[in-house]
Design goal:
mainly alpha, 140 residues
Length: 140
């Protein structure tokens, strides 16, 4: 797989969240590389653990910003986040059961190419448009 890199098409215009998205993409790419490269299991586990922790951090941060902004679609957005958390839990279970399999690589790549990119561009983009329209400043 070619690694996914941050580019300006992913910027939603909220620096706090854009910076978090950059970090998230970097580490999800590192997970895919660790699995594909058949790195030692401890390295894959370490990368996967970080990714799960960072995903929870990012979602909490993003949802807090949405709540503070009075975002009317917060609950729907939280459901989408919960769906990804469940997918990540499945990744962990698959990895614990089968190790770094081609199916696991495909799942991680699917997360990168489909869910994450679409979520940032479309779903997070709606939130960014909302705060711009309302003139709401998002804090650091």
């Amino acid at each position: 797989m070619g690694s996914i890199q941050w580019d300006d098409t992913l910027a939603i215009g909220i620096p706090l969240l854009d910076d978090q998205h950059k970090t998230w993409i970097q580490h999800l790419g590192a997970l895919a590389a660790a699995i594909e490269g058949k790195f030692e299991v401890p390295q894959v586990v370490k990368t996967l653990d970080f990714l799960i922790d960072y995903t929870n951090f990012h979602f909490s941060s993003e949802e807090a910003q949405m709540s503070a902004a009075g975002y009317p679609w917060l609950e729907e957005h939280q459901r989408k986040h919960q769906d990804l958390r469940e997918t990540l839990r499945t990744l962990v279970l698959d990895f614990e059961e089968d190790g770094p399999t081609p199916r696991l690589v495909d799942t991680v790549n699917d997360l990168l190419r489909n869910w994450l990119m679409r979520h940032i561009r479309e779903v997070d983009g709606v939130f960014a448009a909302y705060v711009r329209e309302k003139g709401i400043a998002i804090g650091q």
